[in-house]
């Protein structure tokens, strides 16, 4: 450490930074292109190249994408679909996370006959591709009377997410010493008291991991959205597809880019706010007793 | 204040072909300090968890003050436990850790506060009350863990190897503290340890457990001086007892055994008359370091005391005494000598054998005889 500080321009340091900068550029260029072009006029885009700065900066693309761009037959922008996505994602994330933490608690601290088998089967859920369950799920939602509803979409995401959230929480709670549970039981705490008073307060990092993971997964989902929702109920991912594919005359790349940015912002925000917990939660070892 | 009775406690774990506890019977008097001691995996922690109700029994019963509590859930047994890892709730302050059990039991707030300050002053942890467990040293965490147990004023305290995570100096300090606490409160304590010194210093009675069986239950003096069998004899005491194979022979002065030293010196060790049924047979002599010492005029006249000149192989001065290693019948034997006594490695020294205090074992069964 000391050595590298006194010689800041060693060859290895330069190499490390060069590699990092190249990697950063590779990842940033698409974002830069999107951002730059979302602030251009359509004429500007057609005249210049993709990487050039806008000749005139304008929010026209953003406002059109938000409130008046055509997604199929209606031309009301993506704002309605943006809120759809929120109404779908927030409950789905919360419900699946809460269920996962509860499952994890039971599987790690109150193992029952066959709990390991149960956990293994649940893990299976993490590896089932979306496409496989579309038909049976459509059938089930139809039977439940939830076809083409937001509730149905939330249900699908909760079911799909519980496998992951249970895995996260179970592995986190396994590292919590059993003696803690024993001590609480002798102190007179029951099943729920131990969960809410002892384990939940310990769970902030893994809650953050779960929230980020689930939020990203559910917000970014396209397949379930396009299959199990329709018309005004669709999430923003589907709306963007519709917006880009609706061709009435000139292709408005600035609007497309702005709409894509709007769709990407919430996940970006969640990661910025809770990101430090994400790393911490993933690497969290045992709790010091 | 409670009397605890363990009757024929049996435990077999699922997926395990062998019984972990093979019928343990112990009656613990009110106010008694009982120590369960044994090597790792002997079942002592399982026994303790069973008393607490954290493990179910496969057979037998546990009663407190004559009331069978085998089927009572842990929270209603009125038992508190101090864990090896302390198991302090990491998100709660020291104060909340101590008060947790009282809060769960819905005691009035002023009563809880009074109890927390009582316990805190008893254990001298008042300055720590608002800290989190992670901010405390090992010894402080240990005190808090004891405070949490004390706060409920339970009928019985269980200690599960509470000192094994502390460094040597702190361990001795806390040992004294626990003993003082017990004398102050006069409560029933069951204490698990694998440290025989802890067992000797703290216990009213010691229960030596091995492979799920109770080998001996007795006061530290009984267990030390009259061990039931060779395992107990070897487990209790440091340096450990030495075991020398000898043959019982008849001489003019009664029973005796001939043993050979490292340099072919032979010496005659007098044996008690109680060994006459074993005349002509081989038995095991159990001899503790303090049974071989420098000759003392007051003791040497005893008929079962003898002296001999033997070569010392190694000396280990400990301060108060010198542990010397000699060889008898090809077995390394420790002697505890006065530091004033001239003893140098490789040189012959006058030693006194106090055969009145040694013990004897049947070599086949390992049980004590004579």
Percent helix range of chain A: over 70%
Strand content of chain A: under 5%
Distance between the termini of chain A: 32 Å
Q: What's the CATH topology label of chain A?
A: MetI-like fold
Please state the structural category of chain B: alpha+beta
Query: Which CATH class of chain A is shown?
Result: Mainly Alpha
Query: Which class best fits the helix and strand makeup of chain A?
Result: mainly alpha
- Termini Cα gap of chain B: 39 Å
Quaternary state of this entry equals heterodimer
**Reading side by side through the largest sheet of chain B, how are the strands ordered?**
6-7-8-3-9-10
Number of helices of chain B: 9
Quote the average pLDDT of chain A.
87
Number of strands of chain B: 23
What is the 3D shape of chain B? elongated
Largest interface: A-B, 20 and 26 residues
Number of strands of chain A: 0
Low-confidence parts of chain A lasting 5 or more residues at pLDDT below 50?
A: 285-289
Overall shape of chain A: globular
Q: How many distinct domains of chain A?
A: 1
Overview of the molecule:
The complex is a heterodimer of chains A (289) and B (370). Chain A has 289 residues and is mainly α. Chain A has a single domain, classed as MetI-like fold. The radius of gyration of chain A is 24 Å and the shape is globular. By secondary structure, chain B is α+β, with helices and mostly antiparallel strands. Chain B folds into 2 domains: 232 residues, Rossmann fold, CATH 3.40.50; 120 residues, Beta Barrel (OB fold (Dihydrolipoamide Acetyltransferase, E2P)), CATH 2.40.50.140. Chain B is 24% helix and 33% strand. Chain B is built from 9 helices and 23 strands. A 6-stranded mixed β-sheet of chain B has the order 6-7-8-3-9-10, with helices on both faces. In chain B, strands 2-1-4-5 form a 4-stranded antiparallel β-sheet, with helices on one face. In chain B, strands 11-15-22-23 form a 4-stranded antiparallel β-sheet. In chain B, a hairpin with a 4-residue loop joins β18 and β19. In chain B, α3 crosses α4. Chain B is elongated, with a radius of gyration of 25 Å. Chain B starts with a strand and ends with a strand. The interface between A and B is medium-sized, with 20 and 26 residues.
């Amino acid at each position: 450490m000391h050595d590298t500080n006194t010689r800041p321009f060693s060859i290895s340091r330069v190499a490390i930074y060069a590699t990092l900068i190249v990697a950063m550029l590779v990842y940033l260029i698409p974002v830069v292109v999107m951002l730059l072009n979302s602030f251009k006029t359509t004429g500007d885009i057609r005249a210049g190249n993709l990487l050039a700065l806008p000749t005139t900066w304008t929010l026209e693309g953003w406002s059109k994408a938000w409130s008046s761009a055509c997604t199929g037959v209606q031309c009301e922008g993506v704002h309605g679909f943006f809120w759809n996505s929120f109404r779908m994602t927030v409950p789905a994330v919360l419900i699946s996370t809460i269920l996962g933490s509860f499952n994890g608690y039971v599987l790690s601290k109150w193992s029952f006959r066959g709990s390991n088998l149960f956990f293994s089967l649940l893990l299976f859920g993490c590896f089932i591709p979306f496409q496989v369950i579309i038909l049976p799920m459509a059938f089930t939602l139809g039977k439940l009377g939830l076809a083409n509803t937001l509730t149905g979409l939330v249900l699908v995401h909760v079911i799909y997410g519980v496998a992951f959230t249970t895995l996260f929480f179970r592995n986190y709670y396994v590292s919590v010493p059993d003696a803690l549970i024993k001590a609480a039981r002798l102190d007179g705490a029951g099943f729920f008291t131990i969960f809410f008073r002892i384990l939940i307060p310990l769970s902030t990092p893994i809650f953050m991991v779960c929230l980020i993971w689930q939020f990203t997964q559910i917000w970014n989902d396209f397949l379930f959205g396009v299959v199990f929702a329709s018309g005004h109920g669709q999430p923003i991912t589907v709306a963007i597809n519709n917006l880009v594919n609706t061709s009435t005359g000139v292709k408005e790349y600035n609007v497309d880019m702005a709409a894509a940015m709007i769709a990407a912002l919430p996940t970006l925000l969640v990661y910025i706010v809770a990101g430090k917990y994400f790393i911490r939660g993933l690497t969290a070892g045992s709790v010091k007793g | 204040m409670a009397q605890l009775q363990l009757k024929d406690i049996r435990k077999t774990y699922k997926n395990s072909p062998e019984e972990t506890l093979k019928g343990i019977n112990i009656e613990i008097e009110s106010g008694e300090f009982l120590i369960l001691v044994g090597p790792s995996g002997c079942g002592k922690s399982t026994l303790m968890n069973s008393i607490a109700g954290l493990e179910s029994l496969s057979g037998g019963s546990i009663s407190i003050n004559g009331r069978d509590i085998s089927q009572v859930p842990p929270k209603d047994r009125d038992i508190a436990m101090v864990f090896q890892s302390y198991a302090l709730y990491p998100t709660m302050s020291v104060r909340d850790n101590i008060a947790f059990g009282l809060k769960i039991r819905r005691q009035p707030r002023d009563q809880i506060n009074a109890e927390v300050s009582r316990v805190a002053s008893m254990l001298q942890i008042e300055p720590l009350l608002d800290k989190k467990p992670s901010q405390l040293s090992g010894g402080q965490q240990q005190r808090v863990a004891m405070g949490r147990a004390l706060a409920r004023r339970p009928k019985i305290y269980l200690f599960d190897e509470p000192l094994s995570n502390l460094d040597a100096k702190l361990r001795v300090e806390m040992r004294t503290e626990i003993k003082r606490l017990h004398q102050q409160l006069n409560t029933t304590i069951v204490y698990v340890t694998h440290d025989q010194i802890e067992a000797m210093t703290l216990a009213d009675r010691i229960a030596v457990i091995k492979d799920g069986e109770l080998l001996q239950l007795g006061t530290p003096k009984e267990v030390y001086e009259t061990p039931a069998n060779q395992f107990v004899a070897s487990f209790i005491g440091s340096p450990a007892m030495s075991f020398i194979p000898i043959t019982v022979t008849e001489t003019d002065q009664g029973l005796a055994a001939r043993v050979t030293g490292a340099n072919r010196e032979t010496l005659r060790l007098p044996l008690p008359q109680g060994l006459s049924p074993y005349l002509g047979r081989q038995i095991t002599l159990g001899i503790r370091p303090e049974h071989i010492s420098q000759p003392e005029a007051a003791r040497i006249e005893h008929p079962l005391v003898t002296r001999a000149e033997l070569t010392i192989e190694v000396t280990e001065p400990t301060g108060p005494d010198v542990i010397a290693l000699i060889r008898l019948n090809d077995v390394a034997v420790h002697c505890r000598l006065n530091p004033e006594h001239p003893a140098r490695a490789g040189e012959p020294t006058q030693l006194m054998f106090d055969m009145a205090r040694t013990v004897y074992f049947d070599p086949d069964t390992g049980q004590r005889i004579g």
